[in-house]
Fold Monosaccharide ABC transporter membrane protein, CUT2 family.
Amino acid sequence: MSARRWHTVGAPGGPAEEAPVSSDDATVRLPGDRGDADGRYATDSYGEVPDRGFGVGGEQPAVSTPGYRPDEPRYETGQAAYRAPETDQTLVLGGAGWEPDEAPPRPPRDRLLVHGVWELLLAVGVAGMVAFCYVNQPGMFSSAGLRVLELQAATLGLLALAVSLSVRAAAPNLAVGAFAAVAGLLFARGYDGGVAGALAPALGVALLGGLALGVLVALLHVPAWAASLVALCGGFVTMTAVDHGRAVSLPTSAPDPARTALYWCVGVAAVSVVFGVVGLTGPARRGVGAFRPVADPAVRRGPGAALMAVVALTVSAGLAGGAGVLTVAHARTTDGGGAMLSDLLLALGAVLLGGVSAYGRRGGLFGTALGVAAVLVVLRYGEIRGWPTAVTTYSVAGGAIALGLVVTRLVEWVGHPRPRTEGQAVGAPVRSASLGSR
């Protein structure tokens, strides 16, 4: 049985009369204020509540329509607005003057425990490899063998620091090998009895190259790994053009860093740990990794993130240049750029193996130093056993990178707090995880 209500209808040229209107499918009504305080119907009888239709109350004059029939549904017009009672299923669309009820919540903090657990496991693995090598190849740990191992650790450690800083800044520098080779070449060519006179142009060119790379990445907002390939090609061209790619020997009067290898090793490890300590603080970690994409990688991240990418790439190139100078000072000659790619791959493998996320920002405390130790122990063991150099180098680098990618997935999955769904009690288990928060 359909409900009925009455409208006052003005007929042309005659008095107003009461006409019934049926509440069938042809009648269109919107829920809203019907005259009572809480926006609901005061009674169950339509006849006792003034119908406002699309905003018109009972006091509005009736509208006359020629040819109107009383049994035909009609709509009243007016300018007054009404509000529908808001419920849990009310959809609110923003407009002029609309403001959200509350500010969006801050991104959850990264979970750092996963880095500590992984670094503990990695430390146990490195200790096991050292014990194995000590039993099978005790010559690795002789006085001369330790000096070589310590200097190699310092050199690879500087390269790993360069890669780690750029990866944490979400601007990976794949040209660290090129910067190291060019800096070493300039140091060998410019050495005329003074370390400072040869070191200044070598590091200066590396820093300027890193700055140019950072500006290119920031201005165009392009992936740093792609832009750094330009610098890598430039390194190959430079090494080939200068002296036609021939090796340049360092004068015998140049100091040999092997005498202070332990200090170099400890110093580089200390710098790595300091970088890790700074990265443990939330503001520093988020600031360094501000260039990391959130949704669309092509969307600019703002001037602050761009500036951080420029700084990270510049410092990364400088560290790589220092590694190249240290390599040439120990080897007493340049290698013609043949180690550009292998140096990059070994450093990248050590960084990823140490727990630095390939996506940027996330990293641990001792991970980079432990990754360098793990890679270097295997390389040194293969060198003493007489394994083919190229096969050993690229096998170790590839294995470290592959395992490092697994660690990256672990860090991103476990290291990110899982959001709590609406209405879920505090302490209740969360079943879903989101990896896009910052």
